[in-house]
Amino acid sequence: MNIEKMIYVYLVICVGMILFNIISAFLSRRRDKRILRVSNGFEDRIRSELIWLETHSAVHSAHKNYLSGKLKRISNMRAFDAALEKKHLENPMLVRKYLYSIGSVFVSLSIEYCKKDSMEAAYFPYIIKKYRILADRPFDAMIDMLFRLLHEPSIYCRENAMQALYTTRDASCIVKALKIIDNENKVYHSKLLADGLLNFAGNTQRLNAALWETFEDFSRKMQITLLNYFRFSSGDHCEDILRLMKDTSQDDELRFACIRYFGKYRYEPAYEYLLLYANSRTDMRWEYAAIASSVLASYPAEKTVEILKSNLHHRNWHIRFNSAQSLERLGLTYLDLIDVLEGHDRYASEILRYHFDVRDMIRAEKEDASIC
Q1: Could you report the per-residue pLDDT of 155-209, keeping only the tens digit for each?
Q2: Cα–Cα–Cα angle for 249, 243, 318, nearest 5°?
Q3: Cβ density class 81-106: b for 16+ within 10 Å, e for less
Q4: How confident is the model over 211-215, as a mean pLDDT?
Q5: How far apart (Å, rounded) are the C-alpha atoms in residues 77 and 109?
Q6: How far apart are CA 284 and CA 267, in angstroms?
Q7: pTM of the predicted model as reported, rounded to 2 decimal places
Q8: Which end of the chain is more exposed for a tag (fewer CB within 10 A), N or C?
Q9: Is the per-residue pLDDT at 341 higher than 90?
């Protein structure tokens, strides 16, 4: 192909892309106008029902029939969401009463949305979570639909379903959902689950008790996720987590999660084991010393300083970095560590100076901000 033909082909491609963008923009604008028009219609109908609910206990049955038919389409659901969001901002208590009254509509819609493709199906649990449809009345049909969505390959379906389940306030539902995810063995980032569990709308103590009761039923990966969740939710599990940390038959990654837990919640019975793990001269994996060195910042003591100073001379950068960071967090000064700073180990001296310089910089910025 000569140069002239290549130029013509390139021009045709450019024209095609321009036409595609123009048509896409036109269709998008047309779609947005339609959604706005439908949303205004929903807003008028919702307004009428809210006025009716001020003096009555339930919406008109004709309104529920209307919603059951209209909201089967995803575009109409988006328009309904936009209209309902406006009314929720104006009068959240009355809208809660409205949502309670139309609960049966969402039950029927849950069956319809389960039949749709994954992207459309994922929007329905988003609505359930957004307006906490299951917070007042946990409908079994909707919960079953959410459980089915957890089997979908789409992460959007599974994450939105979990977010909706967190609003049920039912700890047994969450345990069952986690077991489904665990057994499915699909990709699901641990942080998504750990952070999501923190959004549980029910009694956290009941949830934690239920998770501990079934802890051994989960895979190692899910157990680590649960330990990460416990680290940010409650310090009431120190004894159980210490038992796991001491158990040498447990997986190393699981024990690492246990060590991190004691960095968040100081627990004196764990201190001697943290010192042991922080001792970089043992035959254990270097990660034990690195993580324990970071955790020891929560345990100010002479032994803590001694072992952290020793770790500054380790050949592993992570161990040196975490040890220096912990010494800085413990409030030690240049004078306290003059033997290291002025010693012959350049790597130990540099890592300490770095953390102290960062601390001084942050302190100076705060002082400047307070003056301003």
Answers
A1: 899 999 999 999 999 999 999 999 999 998 888 889 999 999 999 998 999 999 9
A2: 70
A3: bbbbeebbeeeeebbebbbbbbeebb
A4: 94
A5: 10
A6: 22
A7: 0.83
A8: C
A9: no
* Residue 314 near residue 281, CB atoms below 8 Å: no
In angstroms, the CA 244 to CA 226 distance is 13
For residues 104 and 235, give the distance between their C-alpha atoms in angstroms, rounded to a whole number.
40
Hey, what are 228's tokens?
């990460």
**Which tokens sit at 333?**
């000064």
Tokens describing residue 10: 């390139």
Nearest to 123 by CA among 78, 80, 166, 57: 78
Q: Are 67 and 107 in contact (CB under 8 A)?
A: no
Contact 150, 126 (CB under 8 A): no
Residues with Cβ within 8 Å of 242's Cβ and at least 6 positions away in sequence, in order, are 258, 262, 267, 269, 270, 273
CB 338: neighbour CB atoms within 10 A? 10
Q: Please name the amino acid found at residue 127.
A: I
User: For residues 23 and 29, is the Cβ–Cβ distance under 8 A?
Assistant: no
CA distance 153 to 186: 7
Instruction: Read off the DSSP letter of residue 96.
Output: H
Map tokens 């004196």 to a residue: 268
| Under 8 Å between Cβ of 178 and 222 | yes
